[in-house]
Amino acid sequence: MHPADAARNWAVPRIESVGELAAWLCVSAGELEWFADLKRMNARTGNGDGPVSNYHYRVLAKKSSSIRLIEAPKKKLKELQRVILRELLEKIPSHPAAHGFVRGRSIKTFAAPHVGRMVVRRMDLRDFFPSLSGPRVQALFRTAGYPDAVADRLGGICTNAAPRRMWKTLGKGLDPMARSEARALYAWRHLPQGAPTSPALANLCAYRVDCRLSGLAEAAGAKYTRYADDLAFSGDEKFNQCAERFALRAAAILLEEGFQVNHRKTRMMRRGVRQYLAGIVTNERLNVVRADFYRLKAILTNCARHGAESQNREGHPAFRMHLDGRVGFVEMVNPAKGARLRRIFEQIIW
């Protein structure tokens, strides 16, 4: 074990050989090679459905015509990933600017530093999880001090290359251009969206970009936070004067670090208009969007008066849990408004 200087205080388990890694994960040497899949046999021979594949696949078409692939690991692989998450990745600290998937931080702590600021700029990253490649993940494990053979297999267990044949069935009805782009994007090893290790690894792999953007923001008199692929910058007069040049420099840093900005979702919000981040209004205090609040209130009221099924127009299989989660979000952001919604929710007969 030869960790980098910055990683010497990480309390990660000591694993110095492939045999020790197999014993730590409680699998045989053959099973370890199968799940790490360093020769990409799953991608070459699998079709996304069957015993050869270690993942279940689901394709989501976004409003922008782009495609998101949900890759859910099967039972045994998910168990191995959870061990790596619990015993290894959670021992490595995330950058203070990262608020997504970090214990003790939330969407509320992500938005709180930007309350009452003159200018708020929101940026969004395209294809956040698949942009983080297998070699990048393996490099993180090497930084922690693991030998090449161990780091490669840890990275292999936590990444995936989607089989090209899978798109013949799951890609039906999708825009041909978007399907071709998605097929090329997901064909290389990347962090799978759906694996328990991916959120923590995404934060750790983005540590360098968080450092660079934090330094850039500080130089411009601004604050910076990140929630997964949502980036937020805010400041007052000094930041307002250089906001456009700042955005170009931030985009250049992201490009250098292997990310692309989704310019369709980039917003510059000055005082006098609604400033919101990840669904939370930040103008004077943290609050929910007024229209969303009244829409949810109307749904709950109609559920109490006419029955819950009359309002389940989108066919949610667990409609009660869906509404409970939405009420819980309001309670977190604005406890007073959340209490009003909770009283109506408790009047619904399920």
Kindly list the characteristics that best describe this protein:
single chain; 350 residues; alpha+beta; five-stranded antiparallel sheet; three-stranded antiparallel sheet; 16 helices; globular
Query: How much is the radius of gyration in Å?
Result: 22 Å
The major sheet is characterized as: 5 strands, antiparallel
Average pLDDT number: 93
Number of strands: 10
Bin the helical content.
40-55%
Uncertain regions spanning at least 5 consecutive residues: none
Percentage of residues in DSSP E strands? 5-15%
Number of helices: 16
Distance between the termini: 57 Å
Shape by Cα distribution: globular
Characterize the quaternary organization of these chains. Answer: single chain
Order of helices and strands: HHHEEHHEHHHHHHEEHHEEEEEHHH
Main structural class: alpha+beta
Description:
The strands form three sheets. Strands 3, 4, 5, 6 and 7 form a five-stranded antiparallel beta sheet that branches. It is built from 16 helices and ten strands. It starts with 17 loop residues before the first helix and ends in a 5-residue tail after the last helix. It has helices at 18-25, 29-36, 41-45, 75-87, 107-111, 134-143, 148-158, 167-170, 176-186, 198-205, 207-219, 237-241, 243-256, 290-306, 319-333, 335-345, and strands at residues 55-61, 67-73, 119-126, 222-227, 230-235, 260-261, 267-270, 276-277, 280-281, 287-288. Helices cover 45% and strands 13% of the residues. The chain is of the alpha+beta class and 350 residues long.
